[in-house]
Inverse folding.
């Protein structure tokens, strides 16, 4: 009897070459597949709610896999954590209905981006924040984030991936439109809806929180890189509207570094 | 004109093979020597307040070196941080009198040890705490720490290092009694004075704070390992007295893992 298992995962992205399995590289999906295989005695490829790139962290990534193993689901958590490296933790394991799929069933996601503004970044922090000690008009950064609320075509903030389908070869679930996540088939466009997009101070850190029904590849990092342009005065906060309308990656700012980014949660 | 420079350093010990310079290995002293050499154009070996072992962290290690470089001391901080790996940060740099020496001038030190008691240890935390989720009588741990206050012979808690002098070969300042620290020549014994020795809860963590005029090699980790024996009921808290009197390493508990230990500060 096949069961469908849902795992909630936290990981330190600085230790891995991203989520997606790649031959010969330490990836979260690859290590998880190997450990589940050893534990259950069956070869499986856990499906994530979406990819995270090398260096990107997860507080609650979700992955599903089917298994015929008789291991009680509550034991999966303990057994997997015993065998996984300490930089990947299973924080919850539950049996879900057969039709639940980590990616296809997802209705929304929340990401966080951390920017450390102090002069000297702690040696215990540098893996987990982006250090940006340079002058910045924080108010302009804060205001620029408001313009992405609602439904927009985010082509200007999407990675230009000519090898997008190539990267999907191998064991990964095939999808012509595979990007960071394709929440459901009707998302075969670059239109996404953003429910929340807000910056706040936390001590010496600027924290960006964004929640939406889906995100294109590099979208959060490209948004952050563009908000920083507003903070530097290169653009005005309201220019975000024009950048969205341009539907052109070159209209927006640079991709902010991976190590400040966290997948916070996935909504179903 | 030679100047004496005092650096205050923070580092993530999980990235290095300890403080002491060793050929072909990434050590804090070795990397610092290399970077100071590049910046100042002079070969120097910075002297630390004492060694930290592989995996042990520092919040405020102190190191001194002499230089004829004309670089203003306030620029040293910035230039060194530009060239050091992010896991080592210079948090302060100042010119001190010629006779000040990071190790010989030290009058005391404070260490902290962190034990995470939760079931699942965050992937962002494992490098920085010791995960001990097993049953423990915390009150017994707390009480056992009180018995080391004052002046004692800590032979039972000192590493047995037959190769102690061998490890001092090379560039390191020679000392027959070199251990974690030899604060001044009269410390050529295993007698040390402990001013503060206290455990407290911090969320899901047990935090041990110990301050003394000096610490032998592995002393804090051996103390923690022995306090845990009291927590497990293997010994009674008051047995610490007998273990001190035994002056025998085998009377005490195992060496607790390095990654929970922090050199917090050095007093001069």
């Amino acid at each position: 009897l096949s069961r469908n298992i849902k795992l909630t995962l936290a990981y330190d992205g600085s230790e891995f070459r991203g989520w997606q399995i790649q031959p010969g590289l330490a990836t979260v999906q690859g290590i998880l597949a190997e450990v589940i295989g050893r534990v259950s005695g069956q070869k499986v490829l856990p499906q994530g709610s979406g990819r995270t790139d090398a260096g990107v962290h997860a507080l609650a990534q979700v992955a599903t896999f089917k298994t015929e193993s008789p291991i009680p689901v509550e034991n999966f958590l303990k057994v997997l954590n015993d065998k996984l490296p300490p930089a990947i933790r299973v924080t919850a394991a539950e049996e879900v209905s057969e039709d639940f799929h980590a990616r296809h069933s997802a209705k929304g996601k929340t990401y966080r981006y951390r920017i450390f503004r102090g002069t000297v970044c702690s040696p215990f922090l540098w893996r987990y924040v982006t250090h940006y000690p340079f002058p910045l008009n924080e108010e302009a950064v804060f205001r620029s984030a408001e313009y992405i609320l609602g439904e927009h075509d985010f082509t200007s903030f999407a990675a230009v991936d000519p090898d997008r389908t190539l990267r999907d070869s191998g064991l990964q679930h095939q999808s012509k439109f595979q990007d960071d996540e394709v929440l459901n088939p009707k998302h075969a466009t670059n239109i996404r809806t953003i429910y929340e997009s807000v910056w706040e101070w936390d001590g010496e850190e600027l924290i960006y929180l964004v929640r939406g029904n889906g995100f294109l590849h590099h979208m959060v990092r490209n948004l952050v890189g563009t908000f920083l342009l507003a903070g530097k005065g290169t653009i005005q906060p309201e220019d975000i509207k024009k950048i969205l309308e341009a539907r052109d990656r070159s209209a927006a700012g640079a991709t902010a570094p991976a190590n400040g980014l966290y997948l916070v949660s996935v909504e179903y």
User: Anything to note?
Assistant: Residues 163-186 of chain A have pLDDT under 50 and may be disordered.
